[in-house]
């Protein structure tokens, strides 16, 4: 587990670096566009986002998500990785309500970053945050639930408590193929039919506790793309290019910046209902994205958003439709939960020994060209080009709270499918 002092030092270093993010646009940005931006009102003043209980909760769930993503991405730097961290946070928080306060709850809170909060109404704050993120316009559907083996002597008070707090009741299972249908049907219903076949095989019989988290995301751009579906090359490291559908639009309004330390160009694209997508595009197709992944924190992304400049660019993005599933349980030890896994005390759920059997997670996402507005038809003075035609990292963030909704790394789009 990382020391608090080391984390603070790293955060400060990241924030100091990002203040220099856009000193010069030597690679592509013209002086004319920067002058236009400053004449319109100059650089935006930095705004401290994480000041309320809800935004502090959003920062905590985001930092948990970035830590989880780093652990998952570190398994193999040459694979695609996708997560909806807030769904995993929701599931593990439900689990924490059944944990002993002196040990297991404390360990879970630390991994979930709740130990950074001073919020006596923590569960109410998370419930309200989840409700705001489920607003229909944001395009996010979340499913999070605790499943339990029926062989355990289960305490109904726990079931009632979770249901009252989060509106979802933990479920006792019989074991076997019927449980697969039960879980798959529930996840499908919670995601409006978008996440299918959540489980492909029965849960193990020896453990007893099975948190699940799933999500579907299809946000809509504010500015639509006029061209979509043209098959173009996506560069791959050490392989022939993949032919994939792309969407393109000239004079697309984005916020953009170059980070020479991370070796990437970054854009922020506005979506409807106060959501935005950040895309981190490495300078070279062979470049390892570990530096970018290691830099991500809630504070870093907030500072980055305030540092990027408003420009118009010829923007080309892949048309992606994919699903991704994995068992996150092996990663929990890397998040500081090795003691929790070795000595799980869920005394508010059962008096029997109950271990986690899995932490199944599945996400489905679509990136399509739809939007509510058309781009300006007048040509930019010095057009910029931002072409996402090689491995990249992206994240989707709720701007009102700062909560991380979705994060992914696309290395090879050939293997992506729904």
TrEMBL record:
SUPFAM superfamilies in the cross-refs: Serpins
InterPro entries on file: Serpin_CS, Serpin_dom, Serpin_fam, Serpin_sf, Serpin_sf_1, Serpin_sf_2
Domain Serpin stretches: 66-413
GO molecular-function terms, A-Z: serine-type endopeptidase inhibitor activity
Signal sequence annotation: 1-32
A GO BP entry: negative regulation of angiogenesis
PROSITE patterns: SERPIN
Keywords tagged on the record: Signal
Residues annotated as transmembrane: none
Keyword field contains Signal: yes
Record-linked Pfam families: Serpin
GO cellular component entries: extracellular space
Family: Belongs to the serpin family.
Protein name (record): Serpin domain-containing protein
Originating species: Esox lucius
Gene: SERPINF1
């Amino acid at each position: 587990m990382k020391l608090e002092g080391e984390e603070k030092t790293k955060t400060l270093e990241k924030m100091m670096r990002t203040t220099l993010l856009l000193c010069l646009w030597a690679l592509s940005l013209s002086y004319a566009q920067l002058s236009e931006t400053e004449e319109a009102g100059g650089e935006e003043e930095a705004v401290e986002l994480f000041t309320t209980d809800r935004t502090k909760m959003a920062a905590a769930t985001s930092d948990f998500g970035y830590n989880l993503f780093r652990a998952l991405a570190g398994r193999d730097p040459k694979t695609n990785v996708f997560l909806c961290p807030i769904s995993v946070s929701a599931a593990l928080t439900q689990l924490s309500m059944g944990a002993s306060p002196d040990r297991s709850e404390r360990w879970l809170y630390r991994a979930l970053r709740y130990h950074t909060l001073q919020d006596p109404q923590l569960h109410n704050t998370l419930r309200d945050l989840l409700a705001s993120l489920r607003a229909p316009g944001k395009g996010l559907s979340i499913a999070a639930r605790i499943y339990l083996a029926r062989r355990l002597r289960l305490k109904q008070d726990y079931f009632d408590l979770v249901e009252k707090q989060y509106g979802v009741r933990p479920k006792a299972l019989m074991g076997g193929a019927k449980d697969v249908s039960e879980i798959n049907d529930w996840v499908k219903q919670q995601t409006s039919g978008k996440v299918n076949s959540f489980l492909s095989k029965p849960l193990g019989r020896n453990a007893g506790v099975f948190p699940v988290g799933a999500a579907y995301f299809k946000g809509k751009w504010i500015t639509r793309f006029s061209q979509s579906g043209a098959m173009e090359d996506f560069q791959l490291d050490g392989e022939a290019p993949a032919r994939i559908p792309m969407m393109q639009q000239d004079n697309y309004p984005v916020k953009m910046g170059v980070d020479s330390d991370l070796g990437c160009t970054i854009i922020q694209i506005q979506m409807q209902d106060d959501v935005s997508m950040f895309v981190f595009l490495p300078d070279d197709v062979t470049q390892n994205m570990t530096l970018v992944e290691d830099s991500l924190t809630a504070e870093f992304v907030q500072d980055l958003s305030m540092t990027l400049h408003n420009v118009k660019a010829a923007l080309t993005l892949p048309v992606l439709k994919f699903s991704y599933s994995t068992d996150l349980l092996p990663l929990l030890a890397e998040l500081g939960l090795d003691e929790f896994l070795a000595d799980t005390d869920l005394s508010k759920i059962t008096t029997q020994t109950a271990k986690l059997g899995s932490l199944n997670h599945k996400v489905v996402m679509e990136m399509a060209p739809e939007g509510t507005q058309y781009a300006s038809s007048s040509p930019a003075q010095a057009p910029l080009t931002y072409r996402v035609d090689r491995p990249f990292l992206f994240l989707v963030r709720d701007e009102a709270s700062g909560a991380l909704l979705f994060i992914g790394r696309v290395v090879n789009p050939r293997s992506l499918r729904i």
